[in-house]
Amino acid sequence: MKPLMLHGHERAITQIKYNREGDLLFSSSKDNKPNVWYSLNGERLGTFNGHQGAVWCIDVDWTTSRLISGGGDNSFRIWDCETGKEIGNIEAKSSVRTCLFSYSGNMAMYTTDRAMRNNCEIFVIDVRTVDSSISQAQPILRIPIESSDTRVSSVLWDNLEDTFITGHEDGAIFQWDFKAGKMVKSIKEHSLLINDMQWNKDGTLFITASKDNTAKLFDASDLSLLKTYKTERPVNSAAISPIFDHVVLGGGQDAMDVTTTSTRVGKFDSRFFHMVFEEEFGRVKGHFGPINSVAFHPDGKSYSSGGEDGYVRVHNFDPPYFEYNFDY
Amino acid sequence: MGALEELKSSRWADEVELEGGALPPSTEVFENGHKILTEYKYEGDKKIKIVRTYKIEKRKFSKTIAVRKTWKKFGESANDKPGPNPATTIVAEEVYMHYITSKEEDNKQEDDGLDKLKAMGDKNVVKCRTCSGDHWTSMCPWKDTAMAGGKDEKKAAEPSKPGGGTKYIPPNMREGATRTRSDNPNSGRRDDTTAIRIANLSEDTTEQEIEDLVKPYGPIHKLFLAKDKNTQLCKGFGYIHFKFKNDAAKAIEKLHGHGHNHLILTVEWSKPQTHNNN
């Protein structure tokens, strides 16, 4: 396969996301402009200019009309996808680490870091009408995370919009009841920060990627641990194929250690595991640094990865991938 | 979109024309479904002509996607022309998914196969080409010693020339000659030892045809058919990686000289690459 290299960012990619149909690919990076691309030919549609610092997270709603982003400039912004104009801006007390649209797209959740004597907090806001007044609007839900060592590092909505799941800096996973605003369940299967969580296609399983060198597959209904995918490097992102029993893991050495290792030792490959047998069956090389975010195209025929090297690589699978049968 | 990139230093005739050092304007030509973009730039003192060929494809999509395709570009891309901007979209080098199969398992299976054959009682199923022993040539205990290739020849040589210590050995029989090319697993990648090359294929051969052709000889690991980048027509050869070596050997034996699409196929061991970019 000949990957497309999307070079629209000057610094490390932090997150990439496809829209629902998969024709657009959104990317955010530690420079201040999220980008949007046509996933088919790698043409850049535009950039969302306005953030003053690193952009940590992005999400797009199911109609591809709005994009939300949160950044290190202590702001949560809402954009119009078609024009790239900023339509809402909410100031936070500290940097916004994660953001996510709810299933209906009527609500959005974002979480802030614990910094400058501010607690880590979870906010849920109403985004049905977005204009300049949204910065004064009261959030629907606001949950401070008191215990000092568990900053939220990844979030997922669950059960349509009834519950949500948060992954934490210390490896814990909490499930919250949205209407009650209370935690209902907590587990701790990881020992270090959970960098990413992603659903499978029908929302029954989710995969977590953790700095403790593993990715784990959980059953969403009772948060039971189903599978563990072990590697020898921190895992920054993991995604589940919508058409096969495959998961892809992206990771590699911490950015701070990269200069002391060559690309060969760094293991900056995307690694494909069989979802059920937990066994690695394939690797794809390409990035010059650790992979920070991976995503499958919704049709399962291509996948993309964004790396610390600032490139997003769009890979279309070759025919042998579709014919590949795992021997067991 | 498939893009080919080609770097050429400009022709001397172009240079004479533009002695002032000004760069010729970039041109865009549309030609039977391809967009050919020609640009000039300086790299140091050298003038460089860049020709990029894009294939224009029409595809059918749902309405929502089609509408999004007509959106105007914005932000940093507001001034980009339609089509990918070479500054932000680069076609990377070809990469392959590297499939991982457990090495130990493969060896074990091969041994099992050998044992099974032996158990069938037919002693001549496996015969070493070096010492005629009851093992694969690549497993021959003599293979790395000076004795390699010795046994048979001594037998043959001694009756005819009892006192002679030196004896002519044809180049292809000398130690290492045939073995290093394809049999010795230490040369080149391990993969190559089970790979065969099929040549003299007709232009319209497809992967499926090749697969049907080689399937009866055993499970295959990988199949590659060389194709022209633009026309997608077969270039006339292909490589097949078998799971097991004896299957590959069998395929060579049976398919070499076999007629396919009115052409006589040439089938041989795949030679290891001269430059290993692994």
TrEMBL record, chain A:
<comment type="function">
    <text>Component of the eukaryotic translation initiation factor 3 (eIF-3) complex, which is involved in protein synthesis of a specialized repertoire of mRNAs and, together with other initiation factors, stimulates binding of mRNA and methionyl-tRNAi to the 40S ribosome. The eIF-3 complex specifically targets and initiates translation of a subset of mRNAs involved in cell proliferation.</text>
</comment>
<comment type="similarity">
    <text>Belongs to the WD repeat STRAP family.</text>
</comment>
<feature type="repeat" description="WD">
    <location>
        <begin position="187"/>
        <end position="228"/>
    </location>
</feature>
<dbReference type="InterPro" id="IPR036322">
    <property type="entry name" value="WD40_repeat_dom_sf"/>
</dbReference>
<keyword id="KW-0853">WD repeat</keyword>
<feature type="repeat" description="WD">
    <location>
        <begin position="145"/>
        <end position="186"/>
    </location>
</feature>
<comment type="similarity">
    <text>Belongs to the eIF-3 subunit I family.</text>
</comment>
<dbReference type="InterPro" id="IPR027525">
    <property type="entry name" value="eIF3i"/>
</dbReference>
<protein>
    <recommendedName>
        <fullName>Eukaryotic translation initiation factor 3 subunit I</fullName>
    </recommendedName>
</protein>
<dbReference type="GO" id="GO:0003743">
    <property type="term" value="F:translation initiation factor activity"/>
</dbReference>
<comment type="subunit">
    <text>Component of the eukaryotic translation initiation factor 3 (eIF-3) complex.</text>
</comment>
<dbReference type="GO" id="GO:0003723">
    <property type="term" value="F:RNA binding"/>
</dbReference>
<feature type="repeat" description="WD">
    <location>
        <begin position="284"/>
        <end position="314"/>
    </location>
</feature>
<keyword id="KW-0648">Protein biosynthesis</keyword>
<keyword id="KW-0396">Initiation factor</keyword>
<dbReference type="InterPro" id="IPR001680">
    <property type="entry name" value="WD40_rpt"/>
</dbReference>
<dbReference type="GO" id="GO:0001732">
    <property type="term" value="P:formation of cytoplasmic translation initiation complex"/>
</dbReference>
<dbReference type="GO" id="GO:0033290">
    <property type="term" value="C:eukaryotic 48S preinitiation complex"/>
</dbReference>
<dbReference type="Pfam" id="PF24805">
    <property type="entry name" value="EIF3I"/>
</dbReference>
<dbReference type="GO" id="GO:0016282">
    <property type="term" value="C:eukaryotic 43S preinitiation complex"/>
</dbReference>
<feature type="repeat" description="WD">
    <location>
        <begin position="48"/>
        <end position="89"/>
    </location>
</feature>
<feature type="repeat" description="WD">
    <location>
        <begin position="6"/>
        <end position="47"/>
    </location>
</feature>
Automatic annotation (TrEMBL), chain B:
<dbReference type="InterPro" id="IPR017334">
    <property type="entry name" value="eIF3_g"/>
</dbReference>
<keyword id="KW-0396">Initiation factor</keyword>
<dbReference type="InterPro" id="IPR035979">
    <property type="entry name" value="RBD_domain_sf"/>
</dbReference>
<dbReference type="GO" id="GO:0033290">
    <property type="term" value="C:eukaryotic 48S preinitiation complex"/>
</dbReference>
<comment type="function">
    <text>RNA-binding component of the eukaryotic translation initiation factor 3 (eIF-3) complex, which is involved in protein synthesis of a specialized repertoire of mRNAs and, together with other initiation factors, stimulates binding of mRNA and methionyl-tRNAi to the 40S ribosome. The eIF-3 complex specifically targets and initiates translation of a subset of mRNAs involved in cell proliferation. This subunit can bind 18S rRNA.</text>
</comment>
<dbReference type="InterPro" id="IPR000504">
    <property type="entry name" value="RRM_dom"/>
</dbReference>
<keyword id="KW-0694">RNA-binding</keyword>
<dbReference type="GO" id="GO:0005852">
    <property type="term" value="C:eukaryotic translation initiation factor 3 complex"/>
</dbReference>
<dbReference type="Pfam" id="PF00076">
    <property type="entry name" value="RRM_1"/>
</dbReference>
<feature type="domain" description="RRM">
    <location>
        <begin position="194"/>
        <end position="272"/>
    </location>
</feature>
<dbReference type="GO" id="GO:0003743">
    <property type="term" value="F:translation initiation factor activity"/>
</dbReference>
<comment type="similarity">
    <text>Belongs to the eIF-3 subunit G family.</text>
</comment>
<dbReference type="InterPro" id="IPR034240">
    <property type="entry name" value="eIF3G_RRM"/>
</dbReference>
<dbReference type="GO" id="GO:0001732">
    <property type="term" value="P:formation of cytoplasmic translation initiation complex"/>
</dbReference>
<comment type="subunit">
    <text>Component of the eukaryotic translation initiation factor 3 (eIF-3) complex.</text>
</comment>
<keyword id="KW-0648">Protein biosynthesis</keyword>
<dbReference type="InterPro" id="IPR024675">
    <property type="entry name" value="eIF3g_N"/>
</dbReference>
<dbReference type="Pfam" id="PF12353">
    <property type="entry name" value="eIF3g"/>
</dbReference>
<dbReference type="GO" id="GO:0003723">
    <property type="term" value="F:RNA binding"/>
</dbReference>
<feature type="region of interest" description="Disordered">
    <location>
        <begin position="150"/>
        <end position="192"/>
    </location>
</feature>
<feature type="compositionally biased region" description="Basic and acidic residues">
    <location>
        <begin position="176"/>
        <end position="192"/>
    </location>
</feature>
<dbReference type="GO" id="GO:0016282">
    <property type="term" value="C:eukaryotic 43S preinitiation complex"/>
</dbReference>
